[in-house]
């Protein structure tokens, strides 16, 4: 399971011009589910993201988590995080999980975020979405439950 985590001042996701999820300060998380991922992968990333210390403390150091600053998480499913573009010009998505499995693990990930007392908003699984945000910093972190990076 892969995640792109961005510290944001605000973020929203819309489908057919209707806002479906919105947060103020917090984290925008793009989440890609790979073949072979399990609830353990989702739980690992949810815990890692919930405790990731990428918000500034009063001294200006990144020592605070989204929990500490009482921010929210906007989770957006994104199978393209599993793209393999090493050959040719058209990416392969063969490493992405089947939609039914991916949706279940995406929902489980969000449940695990909420269990930490963090507001979690969401996009719409498999929908064409428009994401708007202000990246704060900018701060962008790549995570992989298999620790490839």
Describe the protein in words:
α1 (39-51) runs parallel beside α2 (99-115). The chain is α/β, with parallel strands linked by helices and 149 residues long. The chain is globular. The termini are close together. A hairpin with a 2-residue loop joins β1 (2-15) and β2 (18-23). The strands form 2 sheets. Strands 1, 2, 3, 6, 7 and 8 form a 6-stranded mixed sheet that branches. A two-stranded antiparallel ribbon has the order 4-5. It contains 2 helices and 8 strands, in the order βββαβββαββ. It has one domain (2-140): D-tyrosyl-trna(Tyr) Deacylase, Chain: A (3-Layer(bba) Sandwich), CATH 3.50.80.10. The model has no long low-confidence stretch (mean pLDDT 97).
Low-confidence stretches: none
Count of discrete structural domains? 1
CATH class: Alpha Beta
Shape: globular
Question: What string, H for helix and E for strand, traces the elements in order?
Answer: EEEHEEEHEE
Mean pLDDT: 97
Summarize the main sheet.
Answer: 6 strands, mixed
Question: How many individual helices?
Answer: 2
The rounded Rg comes to 15 Å
Distance between the termini: 12 Å
- Write down how many β-strands occur, each being a DSSP E stretch of 2 or more residues: 8
Strand content: 35-45%
Structural class given helices, strands, pairing? alpha/beta
